[in-house]
Amino acid sequence: MLVSIITVNYNNAVGLEATIKSVVDQTWQDFEFIIIDGGSTDESKKLIAKYADKIAYWCSEKDDGIYHAMNKGIKAAKGEYLYFLNSGDLIYAPSTLKSVSEKLNTTDIVYGNLLIVEPDKQWVKFYNEKLSFEYFVRDTLPHQGSFIKRALFTQIEFYDEGLKIVADWKFFLLAVIRFKVSVIYINEVICRYDRTGISANPTYFQLQDSEKQVVLTNEFSSYYEGVIELHELRLRKEFIESIERDFFIQKYLSVKMKWKHLKKKLRIDKK
To answer: Which DSSP state fits 106?
Structure first.
């Protein structure tokens, strides 16, 4: 079963070489490697040429953003499954693809966990085995940790190039909730994710939220309204519970203080 590994890069030669090494070092080699470069002006093109014998297809030309580049990779791919590993991200271990390949059969999306690499720490992000609309309102699946049947992009849609940050989230949302594709979660770390990209930058959080709001309103308005109502009910319940909790705490403290004062008074009266 052929897997297409698609790497998108722009002016990140250092990260790109690390990504390439993590791919070519895999013990399981039944894959094709595709690199879509956005016309880099650093050493990226020389680097790609250096590893040309390991790369099935590559191009270096101006594109219209990351999702346009990812779509170009999809169109060039021949594998039954697609795996998007952008420059700077690394396949977790040399044995990772071999381990995942044993789970690839007829399932539409196979996904696992990420090792999140930040400047001052590393931690594993675990993903839900059970997926729901409410889950996707607050989270997503990791494209760096997911193997997606190529046929789904024809069946559902390619990545929405009108979105700057959340097109992969939109694809997973449509695939799992609307089209009810088959999914399997494997509790393994798939990728070392470099958390310095645009989607993890606080500067873009507002844009991310606004893009999600547009997608949810346009594609799932009735679902979304229900989730909002449920969230408001939960907040109201938590607020009432906090008031009741504070009331009983204050009452308890008041009784405790009165009892303490009474015991003190009794000791004085005995004297």
So the answer is: S
